[in-house]
Amino acid sequence: MSESYKPKGKLFVISGPSGAGKSTVIGRLVKQLNNVYFSVSATTREPRRGEREGHDYFFITNSEFEQLIREGKLLEYASYVGHYYGTPSEPVDRKLDEGFDVVLDIETKGAAQVMEKRPDAIGIFLFPGSYEILRQRLMLRSTDSPEAIEKRMEQAHVECSRVEMYKYIIINDRVETAVDEAIAIITAEKCKTSERLHLLK
């Protein structure tokens, strides 16, 4: 095998209820591992103040998004409050081919779509340790009304009911530990016999 051989990257799908700390863990993960690419989603909504094209989202029109659907160029998509959101497959596949590990941050329905299309995708579910801790985190954010928090808690129970489709569960009661566990998962997946057997032949 050539010394310049670079194995294809792996696809990691990270999900968890609102308040589980996904953005924080993924942000630190990307900073600590220089071979990890965080996938940028596409949306048809207008950019919010401070959002950048290609960094926060790919901002496209309804017709462009629907063309991606027709052509099968989305790993997953959903409609929310009158706008489309989805993961274009082309940037993900390009990064995987370049040897980068790609991380998707998506909810459980989108994760199910990805895992159906890409059986090799590795699912990681993030949870803060208990529903009570989750409720406390949502309250501390001070961004939702009590009614909205209850809706988020109901959604959390729905998401947790689908946890068995994930290969790993990370308990995010301490963000440093959660990041360490995520790094350990990525490392272990790349050290599997099936990944390295060619080096011995």
Sequence-ordered SSE layout with sheet pairings:
Layout: E1 11-15, H1 22-32, E2 36-38, E3 42-43, E4 58-59, H2 62-70, E5 74-80, E6 83-88, H3 89-97, E7 101-105, H4 108-117, E8 122-127, H5 131-141, H6 146-160, E9 168-171, H7 175-190, H8 193-200
Parallel strand pairs: 1-7, 1-8, 2-7, 3-4, 8-9
Antiparallel strand pairs: 3-6, 5-6
Description:
The structure is a single chain. With 201 residues, this protein is α/β, with parallel strands linked by helices. 44% of the residues lie in helices and 20% in strands. The protein has a domain at 11-39 and 100-200: P-loop containing nucleotide triphosphate hydrolases (Rossmann fold, 3-Layer(aba) Sandwich), CATH 3.40.50.300. Helix 1 (22-32) crosses helix 7. The longest helix is centred in the C-terminal third of the chain and has 16 residues, at 175-190. The chain is globular. It starts with 10 loop residues before the first strand and ends with a helix.
State the main characteristics.
alpha/beta; 201 residues; Rossmann fold; 8 helices; five-stranded parallel β-sheet; 20% strand
By CATH, the superfamily of the domain at 11-39 and 100-200 comes out as P-loop containing nucleotide triphosphate hydrolases
Q: What is the name of the CATH class of the domain at 11-39 and 100-200?
A: Alpha Beta
- Tally of alpha and pi helices: 8
How does the helix and strand content classify structurally? alpha/beta
SS elements, strand count: 9
Shape: globular
CATH architecture of the domain at 11-39 and 100-200: 3-Layer(aba) Sandwich
What percent of the residues sit in helical stretches (DSSP H or I)? 40-55%
**Could you tell me the strand content as a percent range?**
15-25%
Largest β sheet strand count, sense and barrel closure: 5 strands, parallel
Uncertain spans: none
Spatial order of strands in the largest sheet: 2-7-1-8-9
CATH topology of the domain at 11-39 and 100-200: Rossmann fold
Radius of gyration, in Å, reads 18 Å
**Arithmetic mean of pLDDT:** 91
Alpha-carbon distance between the two ends:
8 Å
> How do the SSEs run, as a string of H and E?
EHEEEHEEHEHEHHEHH
